[in-house]
Specification:
mainly alpha; Formate dehydrogenase/DMSO reductase fold; 12 helices; globular
């Protein structure tokens, strides 16, 4: 009898939590950009126009924070510089190095135009911003989809799911931020937010159903890999069942007609649920999928480091987003207070005359 012993070396994960944070923030930024670009053409008194204050702040915070997490994920400045010195147009990552600066520039210009109340500049930038945001959604999704070594990623519906979960997170962030803006939640367009969230959630459920049905009929690698994981490992099975249950409960809650008061009371729970769902989807997509061995049995155990590549890095990015949000909210409240004071002074002057 011959005994052959196979040894598995220890190696670091190719995708670190920095990638999860980048895809989370850039998904929010791109979908928020498309939302505000459409709402910019609405009449000032409409519900869509009332979505712009929270949408603009979400866009500004995520647009600034997302490239920071990307640069941290690249680790070495030379890796970023090589995108511009070595032509590799067949690489989606190389294309992203050109698409991302364009998007950041357009998003920053749009936010400045909105803050300065330059409607002409706002309208001129809205269409290019929406097109640039769409290119970001395509490149980030395709960057994963083309990795055939991971069957779970190899599906055309992956970019769609990333975009839709990013839209849910963007809407959740808008609901969360609206409570700290002048006017609070009563000034937030409840009806529009509910319809948009329900539409995106229903589209996500439809995309998942299409993926499952077509995957079962064609024995697609992505579906078969997911089916094998769900039937073999209890952790994946519980995760799948839990995701389906939370998604169904969210759809039922959104479809149920409620008045504005009840909606505002549940807005915090809903916004946190949407943000958490988008984050968990990306964490599973990156970190959990890497725990599936390409060859062999079982699962790799990922132990998140406590330093910059793990917990500390995530806390630092959360702190950056919180600091940016606090600064922008303070400016928004100061601007609103000054505007109110000027309007009040003007009214008193006219009344005196």
């Amino acid at each position: 009898m011959h005994i052959i012993e196979l040894l598995t070396p220890t190696y670091d994960a190719a995708w670190l939590p920095w990638a999860v944070q980048y895809f989370f923030l850039i998904g929010i930024a791109a979908t928020a950009a498309i939302t505000v670009a459409i709402c910019a053409f609405a009449r000032p008194e409409s519900q869509r126009a009332r979505l712009l204050p929270s949408g603009a702040i979400v866009l500004a915070v995520s647009t600034i924070a997302a490239p920071v997490s990307l640069l941290a994920d690249l680790h070495q400045p030379a890796r970023f510089w090589h995108f511009y010195t070595q032509l590799t147009p067949w690489s989606w990552m190389w294309l992203g190095a050109y698409l991302l600066p364009v998007f950041v520039t357009l998003a920053s210009g749009w936010c400045i135009a909105w803050w300065a109340e330059r409607r002409s500049g706002l309208l001129a930038l809205s269409i290019p911003l929406a097109i640039s945001a769409l290119s970001i959604l395509i490149y980030t999704g395709a960057e994963l989809m083309v990795v055939r070594a991971r069957p779970l990623w190899s599906t055309p519906l992956l970019p769609v799911n990333l975009a839709l979960t990013g839209a849910l997170a963007a809407l959740g962030a808008m609901m969360l931020i609206a409570r700290w803006l002048p006017g609070g939640l009563p000034a937030f367009p409840v009806g529009l937010a509910r319809r948009l969230t329900l539409t995106v959630a229903a589209s996500l459920a439809a995309a998942g159903l299409i993926w499952a049905v077509t995957g079962w009929m064609t024995r697609a690698p992505s579906f078969m890999a997911a089916w094998q994981l769900a039937t073999t490992f209890p952790a994946w099975r519980v995760s799948l069942i839990g995701s389906a249950a939370v998604g169904l409960a969210t759809l039922m809650a959104l479809a149920r007609p409620v008045d504005g008061f009840v909606w505002r009371r549940g807005a915090l729970a809903l916004s946190l649920t949407l943000l958490a769902a988008a984050w968990i989807f990306r964490w599973t997509l990156f970190m959990s999928v890497q725990g599936v061995p390409k060859y062999g049995a079982g699962l790799y155990v990922y132990r998140m480091p406590l330093g910059g590549d793990g917990l500390l890095g995530m806390l630092g990015m959360f702190g950056l987003c919180a600091a940016l949000l606090a600064g922008l909210l303070a400016l928004a409240n100061i601007s609103h207070a000054r505007g109110t004071h000027l309007r009040s002074a003007t009214s008193r002057r006219h009344a005196t005359v």
